[in-house]
Specification:
The complex is a heterodimer of chains A (about 110) and B (about 110).
Chain A: E1 5-7, E2 10-13, E3 19-24, E4 31-37, E5 43-50, E6 53-57, E7 65-68, E8 75-79, E9 88-96, E10 99-102, E11 106-110
Parallel strand pairs in A: 2-11
Antiparallel strand pairs in A: 1-3, 3-8, 4-5, 4-9, 5-6, 7-8, 9-10, 9-11
Chain B: E1 4-7, E2 10-14, E3 19-25, E4 32-37, E5 43-49, E6 55-58, E7 61-66, E8 71-76, E9 85-92, E10 98-100, E11 104-109
Parallel strand pairs in B: 2-11
Antiparallel strand pairs in B: 1-3, 3-8, 4-5, 4-9, 6-7, 7-8, 9-10, 9-11
Classes of the chains: A mainly beta (about 110), B mainly beta (about 110).
Chain lengths: ~110, ~110
């Protein structure tokens, strides 16, 4: 069964550093998403991406965040200058056939 | 702004008992998802409900959707310990994003 993969599984970084989270979507899917989940809380939408551009973004997705599809297969989320409150699980998701498939997540810890 | 409310937020059940988790949402949508999440893990898709009156069942779980009432239910029959997890409903907003409920933490006690 096709699956979404994400790397790394866990990233520890210092406040102010840049991080890049990577996702490999399911190959024939066209819609990609990033969500985050702060520990013990609900899953929150960050951004959706279609046809190489952002289709919608949330209030959380400010100028410190960016997404791109650098090579036609990977889908990345960059946080330019991390803050303590960016510590969370970040999930990549793709959609196809009315399903949304979630990757295993990257746990980001900002110290 | 779409709001999705789940209740209860915490549910402690005895094995063998039945219970229902409710998911209300505030804006018209005809696509609703139920996910299961184990601690520290990703979201496992349980059900996709695509139309009014949709009912799906898998094992001890059954989900239904009433788009007119903007309500979905997840019914648990004869709970077993393995069902202990957090359950989220999520409403699809025009295919652009999912809006999640707060989640229901389910603990099944033997």
């Amino acid at each position: 069964e096709p699956e979404v993969t994400q790397t790394p599984s866990h990233q520890v970084t210092q406040m102010g550093q840049e991080v890049i989270l990577r996702c490999v979507p399911i190959s024939n899917h066209l819609y990609f998403y990033w969500y985050r989940q702060i520990l013990g809380q609900k899953v929150e939408f960050l951004v959706s991406f279609y046809n190489n551009e952002i289709s919608e973004k949330s209030e959380i997705f400010d100028d410190q965040f960016s997404v791109e599809r650098p090579d036609g297969s990977n889908f990345t989320l960059k946080i330019r200058s991390t803050k303590l409150e960016d510590s969370a699980m970040y999930f990549c998701s793709t959609s196809g056939n009315y399903e949304q498939y979630f990757g295993p997540g990257t746990r980001l810890t900002v110290t | 702004e779409l709001k999705v409310e789940q209740n209860p937020l915490f549910l402690s059940m005895q094995e063998g008992k039945n219970y229902t988790i409710y998911c209300n949402y505030s804006t018209t949508s005809d696509r609703l998802y139920w996910y299961r999440q184990d601690p520290g893990k990703s979201l496992e898709s349980l059900f996709v409900l695509l139309s009014n009156g949709a009912v799906k069942q898998e094992g001890r779980l059954m989900a239904s959707l009433d788009t007119k009432a903007r309500l979905s239910t997840l019914h648990i029959t004869a709970a077993v310990h393995d069902l202990s997890a957090t359950y989220f409903c999520a409403v699809d907003l025009y295919g652009n994003k999912l809006v999640f409920g707060a989640g229901t933490i389910l603990r099944v006690k033997s």
